[in-house]
């Protein structure tokens, strides 16, 4: 089924202003203007983020929606895909964010606006654990772009977690996927927009 509704979920300390979100949004505007596109600013609380997203897509047709997520957004996208039964594209997805983000409790700044601050609370780690225990995506409906050169997350954990998915494993690269434009055509071919 062609995708008519597309959700993009950004990563930790990121925003809809991220390079990848902006590039995907531009591609939708330029080539797929009929595609419903939503890239929300996610709250720091993982449970609040998932509540916002699942409420926002509640009226979307499950068979015609897809979700894209980067890093922590990839973790969230996996949860959304599991809950909705839709396709998911994941860029260097976080696999164990409760473990990894437990080191980041305290005040944080946004990557795209250092003046914007938020507090990552200890309870958010428990919220991440609760989400991790929730439904997982059907691996056959996932496409993961994973960089061996990711300086934040372990590519081996990512490839193990998404066994059975279509995986594009990059020999180098970085966490941000600075070469994102080299992959965007494959992303849109996978989601097959109407």
One letter per element, helices H and strands E, the order comes to: EHEHEHEHEEHEHEH
| Integer tally of domains | 1
CATH superfamily: Alpha/Beta hydrolase fold, catalytic domain
Structural class: alpha/beta
The number of helices is 7
Strand order of the largest sheet: 2-1-3-4-7-8
Determine the N-to-C terminus distance: 9 Å
Detail the poorly predicted runs.
none
Report mean pLDDT, rounded to a whole number: 94
Q: What oligomeric state best describes the polypeptide chains here?
A: single chain
Largest sheet composition? 6 strands, parallel
Q: Any idea of the CATH class?
A: Alpha Beta
Strand content: 15-25%
CATH architecture descriptor text:
3-Layer(aba) Sandwich
Secondary structure: number of strands: 8
**Approximate helicity band:** 25-40%
Write down the CATH topology.
Answer: Rossmann fold
Radius of gyration from CA coordinates: 15 Å
Global outline: globular
Please explain how this structure is put together.
There is one protein chain. This protein has 194 residues and is α/β, with parallel strands linked by helices. The protein has a single domain, classed as Rossmann fold (3-Layer(aba) Sandwich). The protein is 35% helix and 20% strand. It has seven helices and eight strands; from the N terminus they run βαβαβαβαββαβαβα. The protein has helices spanning 19-31, 46-56, 72-84, 97-101, 122-132, 155-161, 184-191, and strands at 5-9, 36-38, 65-70, 87-91, 106-109, 117-120, 142-147, 166-170. Strands 2-1-3-4-7-8 form a six-stranded parallel beta sheet, with helices on both faces.
């Amino acid at each position: 089924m062609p995708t008519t509704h597309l959700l993009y979920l950004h990563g930790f300390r990121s925003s809809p202003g991220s390079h990848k979100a902006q590039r995907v949004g531009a591609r939708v505007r330029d080539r797929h203007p009929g595609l419903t596109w939503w890239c929300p600013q996610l709250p720091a609380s993982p449970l609040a983020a998932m509540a916002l997203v699942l409420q926002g897509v509640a009226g979307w047709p499950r068979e015609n929606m897809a979700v894209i997520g980067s890093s922590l957004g990839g973790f969230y996208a996996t949860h959304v895909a599991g809950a909705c039964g839709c396709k998911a594209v994941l860029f260097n997805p976080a696999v164990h964010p409760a473990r990894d983000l437990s080191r980041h409790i305290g005040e944080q700044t946004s990557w795209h606006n250092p003046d914007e601050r938020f507090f990552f609370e200890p309870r958010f780690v428990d919220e991440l654990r609760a989400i991790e225990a929730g439904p997982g995506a059907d691996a056959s409906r996932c496409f993961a772009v994973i960089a061996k050169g990711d300086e934040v997350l372990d590519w081996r954990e990512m490839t193990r977690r998404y066994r059975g998915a279509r995986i594009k494993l990059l020999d180098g690269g970085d966490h941000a996927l600075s070469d994102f434009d080299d992959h965007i055509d494959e992303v849109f071919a996978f989601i097959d927009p109407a």
